[in-house]
Design brief:
By secondary structure, this protein is mainly alpha-helical. The protein contains eight helices and two strands, in the order ααααααααββ. Strands 1-2 form a two-stranded antiparallel ribbon. A hairpin with a 5-residue loop joins β1 and β2. The longest helix is centred in the N-terminal third of the chain and has 23 residues. The radius of gyration is 25 Å and the shape is elongated. It starts with a helix and ends with a strand.
Length: 186
């Protein structure tokens, strides 16, 4: 019986040793283990990459972790707002983006994303003003902000002269947290 117990302990030690050795082999078939001495990647960077990949729920988790580290900064609020915009949670996205603007009113990307939210909600007049602010802050450098401003201006001009037409629009992501509105051909 004692011999079986010793054999069992030796077996566990061998299995545990094999697991560690296999995880350190970069050419091995197993995923690497946890890097205990390594530094964690910035949660905001992870969040922005997840937004870029279209993984909005995971991005919200990453930005929430960033909020634990640095508080609800303008960048964290903007990231959370952008992720909620990607999920179609317009009211939440609007609230978060407005909070981000209160903390940093000089970010054209945040103003642009707020304009997209307002346009999606059908608040064209305010969306036009917000896109103008984003365009002014950006000095006309961003094509997506310029295109969004053109779209909202064309939409407001068309609504003055013609009856309202049913048009479909699609959000297209450009850059890490910048959105462009495109019409869908019918």
């Amino acid at each position: 019986m004692a011999r079986a117990g010793v054999w069992l302990l030796v077996s566990f030690a061998l299995v545990a040793g094999c697991g560690e050795g296999a995880s350190r082999d970069p050419d091995g078939p197993y995923a690497p283990g946890v890097a205990r001495g390594g530094e964690a990647v910035d949660s905001k960077l992870v969040g922005h990459r997840l937004v870029a990949a279209g993984e909005f729920e995971l991005a919200i988790d990453a930005f929430s972790r960033a909020a634990l580290d640095e508080g609800m900064s303008a960048d964290v609020l903007a990231g959370l707002g952008t992720a909620n915009l990607g999920l179609g949670r317009l009211h939440t996205a609007e609230r978060l983006l407005r909070q981000a603007i209160e903390k940093d009113e000089f970010s054209p990307e945040v103003w642009n994303n707020l304009g997209v939210v307002l346009l999606e909600k059908g608040e064209n007049g305010e969306a036009e003003q917000v896109f103008k602010k984003a365009y002014a802050l950006d000095n006309g450098q961003s094509d997506s902000i310029r295109d969004n401003l053109r779209l909202v201006l064309a939409k407001s001009e068309n609504s003055l002269y013609t009856e309202e037409l049913e048009q479909d629009y699609k959000l297209v992501r450009r850059g890490s947290s910048d959105y462009l509105i495109r019409s869908i051909p019918g």
